[in-house]
Amino acid sequence: MGNKNKTISFRVSEDAFEALRDIAEERDISLSAVFRDYVDTLVAHDGQVRAVPEAELESMGETGESFPPRVEVPKSFVREHERLELEADHLREQLDEYKRYVTHLREQLDGDEEDVIYLEDLDDRGDRGEHADRGERDEPSFRLG
Fold this sequence. Notes:
The protein has helices spanning 14-27, 31-44, 54-63, 75-111, 119-122. It has five helices and no strands. The longest helix has 37 residues, at 75-111. It is mainly alpha-helical. The protein is elongated, with a radius of gyration of 38 Å.
């Protein structure tokens, strides 16, 4: 598959374009690099990114808020999540084991074509019929029906 770069194209107003160009010049990077940085940040934070002016960011630090926001999660939730992850790993391992077993059985079945026994081949009495000499009892005879 590889790691191919893709092109994204969209339209913005002229004012927005000029503002973005100014941002790029301030940071001494290309306009494309501004967008690549933003996209990388957006992807890294699973789409949970918001633009915050620096002044607001500094005031947030004074009030005790942090950015990005943090959420307290009960330990029971974390334990349950870890348990489910372990169970999922175990189930994946079992599935892989079952797949290997099925593959083994299929290979065994494909290789055992010589083990097919036809009833005609078992009837070694041939044309002697049912009234053959009953003195020969080397092999047991069976009657179906």
